[in-house]
Design brief:
7-stranded antiparallel sheet, 0% helix, mainly beta, elongated
Length: 174
């Protein structure tokens, strides 16, 4: 949380009847931000002989809220009182804002590796955000990927090369 107080108090009235305004000004601003992020993940691993399988589920949530206001005025009717109450209401201004954002996502990822050489991965993702209108709030994404770790083949023998992998992936981004 952050708050700030800014003021300038200049001049005093020439009489105590309040008939003459001073040249002072006053400003006060305050803002508060509150954000959080949470993630939960689960993973299942299983070996079926030379086939390794991994499934991952993940749920993400986040929230942001910002609240701010500014009030200011000029022309004190009472000197030495740094308050908006000491300024005629016709000489005061105020603004405020409040913004909120929420996002949520779900991820499902399966990957399979056969003999530590041939790899297939399939991922599905669903994301939602309050930044978009109700009819465009949720989007789906995917990715498929294939890889061949040629360096794991018995016939692969290139001096100085420990890993050599060909891969191909296709998907959507958001």
């Amino acid at each position: 949380d952050f708050w700030g107080l800014y003021r300038t108090d200049l001049g005093t009235p020439t009489d105590f009847a309040g008939t003459q305004e001073s040249s002072g000004s006053f400003r006060r601003s305050e803002s508060v931000s509150d954000s959080w992020y949470a993630e939960i993940q689960g993973q299942l691993l299983r070996d079926f002989g030379p086939l390794n399988a991994r499934t991952t589920f993940r749920h993400l949530m986040e929230s942001d809220e910002d609240i701010a206001y500014t009030a200011s005025g000029t022309g004190f009717i009472v000197g030495g009182v740094p308050s908006l109450n000491a300024i005629p209401s016709a000489n005061t201004r105020g603004t405020s804002s409040n913004s909120q954002g929420r996002a949520m996502g779900f991820i499902w990822d399966n990957s399979f590796a056969y003999a530590d050489r041939y790899i297939v991965s399939i991922l599905g993702r669903r994301d939602g955000s309050s930044a978009f209108g109700a009819d465009r709030r949720w989007h789906n994404y995917y990715r498929t990927a294939f890889a061949w770790r040629m360096a794991q083949e018995r016939w692969f023998n290139v001096p100085g090369v420990d890993e050599f992998k060909l891969s191909y992936a296709r998907g959507t981004a958001g």
